[in-house]
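Budget justification aside, the reviewers requested a transparent look at the raw inputs and outputs of the sequence design task funded under Objective 1. We therefore reproduce one unedited record. The lines immediately below are the structure tokens for a 546-residue chain.
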């Protein structure tokens, strides 16, 4: 029996309680909330309404989150939405004791148990679903009072949906990272990996939600959870007494399977549809059936674009009155909306190397004068294409790196090449999503990740012996640094390096790499040693984390 499922409960007591709680709705609903039966809102909520209460992850996790304490300040720092502080913090570092104490408290452990419960099923078909509807209708009153819902405003508008639960769900992400480190510190490396895979599963649930903001949150959570899985494995591998066995590593590798089984199934991920419904809802308010602006054009657009600055609505209304005079009619605006989303949808099903990725997107062609409404209410979702590719790279690269560690755990030596991992550890080769699709003769290639062992594969200086592999690391918003990878005296673990050729598809022998980034760049994409592990070691050396 796998190490994760062996420690799971066979029933879902929290789900039973949550199902009962779901029948207790808001007792006093404002008259404006009745408008939440709007056909556009109903369309977005339709899929969720078909999910049985005992299969709704939100009715298990969110009630547990009601009693969750705020994270200590030391782990609250976010960078580009990423919980960088929580990912970096560890034993011996300033603030670790307070963070560990917070994570160990009963209210936070209840959240960890709920997270564990909603990810119990390991297959996509049986997985629980994050199915909370948008708006207050159908949401338990206790969750609304705790801010664990999506506010649609008055009148209810999908385009300005306020996902009030997301900051609190980010606290769950922070908790999971701290709990993983806490378990690793206690000697429970398998438990640390377990909670991170649970977190990865949570991100996968969110990637199936209906709005860009939620889906982007899901991708970033999956990517960071995968990075931390490698981080935990690296810390254990580099220790004097590694504890992860081949069987335990194989279990994690299996659960990170992208296609054949498990809950990930990246190919099943789709573009969110809620933003399109939200745009259509607004267009139905500001244009009549003949495409002429309605009397609500300026006031509607003003309220939508100043939701966080209500005192500016008067001046914004004046601006939109001017825009109304030069804006395209409703018919052409709706056609352009279809063009934008159909362009994304068509490209989504194509290969990462498809020529269409090099074309200018329809969204980028929007005219700020005649199509300004669409620019105001439709988010640019083109970033999801790169997020998906990064996720594939992280997960396939992590499977490759863990397979090498599993090989070493069993045979006490590193594999000669990646082919030695098949089929005993990896059933098939793991493809580098950034690898060149064709060679100079235009023949189709299937590119694996790159792998080397510095002391074995690099040239040896006859005077000084094996030479290290120098790697320069460029960070996104932090200090850049350099490392030299080579076995150290007295070190039990053999050093190895795994990398992707990166967005430029040019192998740089991992000498120039960047932290996980969402922009094209020159250089490689380092998988092992994990950048986060190296950066933590660098900051410790510099005395910046103490």
């Amino acid at each position: 029996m796998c190490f994760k499922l062996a420690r799971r409960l066979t029933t879902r007591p929290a789900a039973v309680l949550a199902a009962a709680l779901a029948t207790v709705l808001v007792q006093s609903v404002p008259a404006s909330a009745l408008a939440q039966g709007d056909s556009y809102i109903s369309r977005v909520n339709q899929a969720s309404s078909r999910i049985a209460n005992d299969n709704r992850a939100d009715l298990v996790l969110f009630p547990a989150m009601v009693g969750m304490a705020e994270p200590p300040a030391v782990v609250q720092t976010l960078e580009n939405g990423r919980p960088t502080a929580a990912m970096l913090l560890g034993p011996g570092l300033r603030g670790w004791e307070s963070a560990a104490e917070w994570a160990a408290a009963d209210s936070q452990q209840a959240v960890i148990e709920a997270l564990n419960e909603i990810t119990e099923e390991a297959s996509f078909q049986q997985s629980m679903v994050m199915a909370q509807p948008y708006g207050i209708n159908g949401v338990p009153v206790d969750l609304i009072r705790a801010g664990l819902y999506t506010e649609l405003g008055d009148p209810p508008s999908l385009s300005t949906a306020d996902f009030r639960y997301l900051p609190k769900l980010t606290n769950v992400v922070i908790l999971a990272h701290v709990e993983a480190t806490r378990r690793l510190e206690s000697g429970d490396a398998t438990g640390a990996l377990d909670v991170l895979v649970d977190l990865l599963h949570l991100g996968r649930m969110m990637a199936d939600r209906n709005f860009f903001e939620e889906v982007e949150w899901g991708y970033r959570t999956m990517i960071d959870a995968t990075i931390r899985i490698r981080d935990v494995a690296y810390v254990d591998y580099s220790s004097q007494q590694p504890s992860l066995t081949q069987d335990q590593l194989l279990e994690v590798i299996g659960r990170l399977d992208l296609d054949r089984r498990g809950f990930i199934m990246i190919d099943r991920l789709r573009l969110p549809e809620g933003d399109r419904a939200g745009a259509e809802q607004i267009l139905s308010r500001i244009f009549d059936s003949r495409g002429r602006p309605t009397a609500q054009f300026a006031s509607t657009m003003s309220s939508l674009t100043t939701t966080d600055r209500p005192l500016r609505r008067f001046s914004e209304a004046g601006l939109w009155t001017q825009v109304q005079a030069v804006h395209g009619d409703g018919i052409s605006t709706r056609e352009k909306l279809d063009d934008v989303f159909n362009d994304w949808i068509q490209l989504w099903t194509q290969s990462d190397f498809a020529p269409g990725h090099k074309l200018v997107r329809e969204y980028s062609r929007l005219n700020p004068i005649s199509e300004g409404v669409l620019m105001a209410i439709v988010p640019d979702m083109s970033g999801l294409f790169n997020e998906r590719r990064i996720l594939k790279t992280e997960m396939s690269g992590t499977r490759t790196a863990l397979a090498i560690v599993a090989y070493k755990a069993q045979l006490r030596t590193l594999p000669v090449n990646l082919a030695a991992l098949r089929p005993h550890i990896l059933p098939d080769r793991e493809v580098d999503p950034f690898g060149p699709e064709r060679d100079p003769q235009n023949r189709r290639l299937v590119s694996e990740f790159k792998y080397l062992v510095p002391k074995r594969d690099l040239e040896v200086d006859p005077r000084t012996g094996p030479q290290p592999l120098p790697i320069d690391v460029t960070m996104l918003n932090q200090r850049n640094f350099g490392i030299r990878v080579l076995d150290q005296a007295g070190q039990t673990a053999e050093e190895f390096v795994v990398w992707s050729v990166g967005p430029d598809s040019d192998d740089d022998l991992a000498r120039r790499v960047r932290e996980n980034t969402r922009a094209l760049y020159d250089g490689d994409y380092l998988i092992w040693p994990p950048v986060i592990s190296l950066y933590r070691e660098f900051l410790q050396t510099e005395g910046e984390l103490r």
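The chain has a mean pLDDT of 85. Residues 274-380 form one domain. Computational costs for records of this kind are itemized in the attached budget.
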